[in-house]
Amino acid sequence: MTTPVKQHLIDPEICIRCYTCEMTCPIGAIEHDDNNVVVNADVCNFCMDCIPVCPTGSIDEWRVVETPYTLEEQYEFDELPEQAEIEAAPAGGDEGEADPIAALLAEAHKGAGGKARAPLTAAKPAVNMYTLGKPAKMKVQGNYRLTDDPSHDVRHIILDPGALPFPVLEGQSVGIIPPGQDAEGKAHLPRLYSVSSPRDGERPGYHNISLTVKREDGGLASNYLCDLEQGSEVEVTGPFGSTFLMPNDPNARLLLICTGTGSAPMRAFTMQRQRGGATGGMTMFFGARTPESLPYFGPLKKIPEKILRQHLVFSRLPDADKEYVQDRIVSEQDEVAEMLGDDRTHIYICGLRGMEEGVELAMTSIAESIGQQWTALRDVMRDEGRYHVETY
Ligand code: NAP
């Protein structure tokens, strides 16, 4: 019998094909085809560099196997295989000596970090319907500038899949394939954008999707998207993501924390909750440089407070100190503490990776103020599908 080993795998249902893990792996153990991103068991040395960079947690999957899944097998996965039964190690040695197989299985089950889960009442998402080899071709229905700041061009781009089925849920992402080839003559990899429209489209029944895109200096995909003209055709992969989803429960309360274009899924959540008549309410902490660079500033002002309580936080106002979302969370700690103490509350964090640390610190002190330990509370919320992070 071969000795069982731990194998690192990627969950194809949760992975959003951002390829960050592949770009991060220092030894080239991660690769992809048109369908999946996979880990080469002969190369992976469990250095864990890929774990913290994954925005979804799909990278944190482990199985104990007698024969590792080959790359070919992993490319065919639609979902991860269950952990197979592995025979316990033969008894022997001192009494009480740990069974190494049981230890491996326990370690594999736990994962390196917490596992993201969808809210219990979320709708079931469709994932990976359109791939690199078979993208959906969508028509540009509109491309509107959202920001007045001349140095901060953020666009609302509406794409129409036409007769193609392209079901998306709020919080899911799509890949955009920039046309042309890279320096090595290979097709460009898709760049990932969160969908900012609700499930049935910009207007109910239209089934189009919108994206929120900031023009980045020298950015291949962002400049391509921001310059798109109405009627042009775009190649789209996805939809991706099956955990950063909203609860369908109308009584759920949402605590939304975002920066800049990380507001994209929050817009989708807000529109869907408005359409569905949700009563649980939402509170949003939204950070931008100035009002002129905050996407959707105008439309946001029209949303009643009983649907969305808004804390718009600015870091570059000419006559005020720099303020970040985490600063405002602390100054509004009573409101946040009350929400943390309510098990109907779901937390969503989206935007700059840098804000995560600040938000963690803020939550730690607020949780303490209600006699709770934040990391323990966060882990419970994550297990219950009530804590979601997507930062880049
Ligand atoms: P940005 O305009 O550069 O920044 C937004 C705000 O965040 C600014 O006020 C900025 O302050 C502040 N900020 C900077 N560092 C921070 C920190 N450590 N903690 C808290 N706030 C901080 O944002 P952006 O260019 O729109 O970027 C948003 C990010 O969201 C990007 O990384 C993007 O990849 C990601 N994202 C986008 C989508 C999407 O679909 N579009 C989805 C998910 C995530 P300063 O004045 O200090 O710069």
UniProtKB/TrEMBL annotation:
Query: Which cofactors go with this protein?
Result: FAD
A GO molecular function held by the record = metal ion binding
| Keywords of this entry | FAD, Flavoprotein, Iron, Iron-sulfur, Metal-binding, NADP, Oxidoreductase
What sequence ranges are listed for the domain 4Fe-4S ferredoxin-type? Answer: 6-35, 37-64
Q: Which NCBIfam families match?
A: benzo_boxA
For this protein, the record's PANTHER family field holds:
PTHR43314
Please give the name of this protein: Benzoyl-CoA oxygenase
Organism of provenance: Sulfitobacter mediterraneus
Record lineage = Bacteria, Pseudomonadati, Pseudomonadota, Alphaproteobacteria, Rhodobacterales
